[in-house]
Amino acid sequence: MERDDDIHHEHARKLKVFKHILSQVGEDPSEGLAMIDAVQRLGIDYHFQDEIEEILPRQYMIAANYSTSTSTNDDLQQVALRFRLLRQEGYNVPAGVFNNFILNNKGKFIKWNVSEDIKGLMGLFEASQLSIGTGEDHLLDEAVDITAKFLNEYYSKMMDLDDDDDNYYQARVIVGNTLKYPHHKSLPRFVAKNLFLSNYQGENGWIHVLQELAKIDYNVVQSLHQKEIVQVSKWWKDLGLAKKLGFARDQPVKWYIWSMACLTDPSLSEQRIEVTKPISLIYIMDDIFDVYGTLDELTLFTETITRWDHAASEKLPDYLRICFKALDDITNEISYKVFEEHGYNPVHSLRRAWASLCNAFLVEAKWFDSGHLPKAEEYLKNGIVSSGVHVVLIHIFFLLGQNITSKNVDLIDNNPGLISSTATILRLWDDLGSAKDENQEGKDGSYIYYYMKEHQDSTAEDARKHAVGKISDAWKGLNKECLSPNPFSTSFTRASLNLARMVPLMYGYDDNQRLPILEQYIKSLLHESTYLPGVY
């Protein structure tokens, strides 16, 4: 206990020191940008939101001036970093800030010598991930392809150089991680261990303070997550569904990981635990519809949930009656907590979300049973709902308790773009996987399969490229939804983004039907006892 007190005391001291440093940045644009970038990449920016909100408006004014400037003496790395940080916080910065860097006087893309400005090209590649795909943002869509090409060439050259040279090794890791895990589309705490803090400016003090703070913060948060998993595991065991439903997956840690990824602020402990509960039921119900239930049983079950009919539930087969009771209990418990804490009872919204999910599951079951082959887009439209993303995010929305207005409730009930874009990313990533989760003999097809059936002259590679393109478009839609003005709270918007960022880890199957990236993530965040950002 004394040691825990010492750790928290040291954490508070380091936090106070860096808050002071960050508040003293003043008008130095490069230093302020570097600090914000560093704390975000380390996943500790939740401590510094007030300081960040103080710095960024000044940076926005600088960006506004750049968009009309004709100067050619500016620093591409700094302009790209400013653009990315501002867009990540919802500022609608025009892509025209890059015109002087990527277009010549004929409107053509400039041919770079990659070795001359590797940091600038990495910055532009990172900034291009925030494209919204409209207007002048088409420049960013071209820039991401061009910068990726140059960076891959540079990375290949670095691979041929001596591993014993620390500078070459560090450059190779930084470029490789930029290509594989662009910041905007990655979970910061997952990639933080590969972060070289020495790459930042300002080595005269704040780098060391920040590194020490990140180490302590990591261990404090890790301890909190471990305690939450104990609570989640106890809840799941007490619920008894794993015993009552022999076919059901028994993976409380995996389900909790979704909540942990979405809600990263340590203060949201209760919300993480509560959100894990509906996530577990999504997986159970997916198995029921995809593997276990007959069409008649599934139809009756869906009708019962659509009407939320307790009397009808008594006529269900035992396994479905048990599932309905668990669903009803959890929905009522969460609704009561939301009402107690925020003064709004979301029970009708939550029930409608579950009914929509079950109806989408049933559509897929009917397709399989009848042999019907839907068009790829018909499948995807239904698959956005059957992904379960709407159910997860609507629970998060109410549990956060922010901006709960009648207008926003109506908006979120109807699967707005913020949610449907995230769901599209999940559905298509899932379908790109070459393995079936847990060797389930699924009945729900895939976008790739239906696309190839619809386009008989397409190869599997053609279908995959098409799906990857649609994922890219969905990310642009998600980016646009996150720009201001946004009716939802920052916490909810970030939860939606984090869910999308988690998807590649959760569906990154290898040839052995394993999830090595997810396993690495779980090990890193929950089990490893040391954390040394900058020492890889």
UniProtKB/TrEMBL annotation:
Q: Where is the Terpene synthase metal-binding domain?
A: 237-476
The yes or no answer to whether the keyword Transmembrane is present is: no
Q: Which PANTHER family match?
A: OS04G0344100 PROTEIN-RELATED, S-(+)-LINALOOL SYNTHASE, CHLOROPLASTIC
Superkingdom of origin: Eukaryota
Q: Give residue ranges for domain Terpene synthase N-terminal.
A: 10-158
Q: Which InterPro entries match?
A: Isoprenoid_synthase_dom_sf, Terpene_cyclase-like_1_C, Terpene_cyclase_plant_C1, Terpene_synth_N, Terpene_synth_N_sf, Terpene_synthase-like, Terpene_synthase_metal-bd, Terpenoid_cyclase/PrenylTrfase
The family database entries (Gene3D superfamilies) matched by this protein are listed as: Farnesyl Diphosphate Synthase (1.10.600.10), Terpene synthase, N-terminal domain (1.50.10.130)
Which prosthetic group or cofactor does it need? Mg(2+)
Q: Which Pfam family is one of those matched by this entry?
A: Terpene_synth
Q: Which UniProt keywords apply?
A: Lyase, Magnesium, Metal-binding
Protein name (database record) = Uncharacterized protein
Task: Kindly list the GO molecular function terms attached to this UniProt entry.
Answer: magnesium ion binding; terpene synthase activity
Q: Which GO terms describe its biological process?
A: diterpenoid biosynthetic process
Q: Does the record carry rRNA-binding as a key word?
A: no
